[in-house]
Design brief:
By secondary structure, the protein is of the alpha/beta class. It has a single domain, classed as Rossmann fold. Helix content is 39%, strand content 24%. It has a seven-stranded mixed beta sheet with strand order 3-2-1-4-5-7-6. The N and C termini lie far apart (43 Å). The model has no long low-confidence stretch (mean pLDDT 90).
């Protein structure tokens, strides 16, 4: 069995997610969005894909020095800056789209709520927030739940927050009443959801 650690966690979970990043790219194209922020951008893979497809008014923010070091390697990389995604210095109504991808389940409930509130503040009215994260319901296959559980067992605080997130109802419970859901896409035995919300 593979033992996950803080050091190999990002490499491991990076393997299957190209299809999700491509779906986000498709959504952004379809919505004709121009100005995009990736909150908790990690190593910047989504922004890199956007930049490769002609998007240049994009920015990411992340708190991790390690992730930002990876994100900013090489020439012509998208801008990823250090900062707290729950309390940014962006002006109100700055963006057409905010992306929050796998950046809720690993945080405390208070940080989850604050991150969503910040996304609502910085995205223009009637524009879009794309959220990707776990959600287990009657549509979720058991293989999906088991696979996610194996992935999420690594870092201690991360795993504890994940368990609380799932116990409280995942994405359904967290986002209920905050935004208008207009689209939903299913991945990994329906354990992962990519949702488009209107602000």
């Amino acid at each position: 069995m593979i033992k996950l650690t803080n050091e190999n966690y990002n490499d491991f979970i990076d393997l299957p997610f190209d299809s999700i990043r491509n779906k986000i790219l498709d959504i952004i194209k379809e919505k004709k969005a121009k100005k995009i922020v990736d909150l908790c951008c990690g190593a910047g893979e989504q922004l890199t894909l956007l930049k490769e497809n002609g998007y240049d008014n994009i920015i990411g923010i992340d708190i991790s020095d390690h992730m930002l070091e990876i994100a900013n390697l090489g020439e012509d990389k998208p801008i990823c800056k250090k900062g707290d995604a729950t309390n940014t210095d962006f002006k109100d109504n700055s963006f057409d789209v905010a992306i929050i991808s796998f950046a809720l389940h690993d945080k405390s409930l208070n940080s989850q709520k604050t991150l969503l509130k910040e996304a609502k503040r910085i995205v223009k009215k009637n524009m879009y927030i794309i959220i990707v994260d776990y959600n287990f319901d009657k549509k979720t296959e058991r293989l999906g739940e088991v696979g996610v559980e194996l992935i999420e067992q690594a870092p201690n605080e991360h795993y504890e927050n994940y368990k609380k997130y799932i116990k409280k109802g995942g994405l359904d419970s967290l986002v209920k009443g905050k935004f208008i859901k207009i689209e939903e896409y299913y991945f990994y035995f329906n354990a992962v959801r990519c949702r488009v919300y209107k602000n």
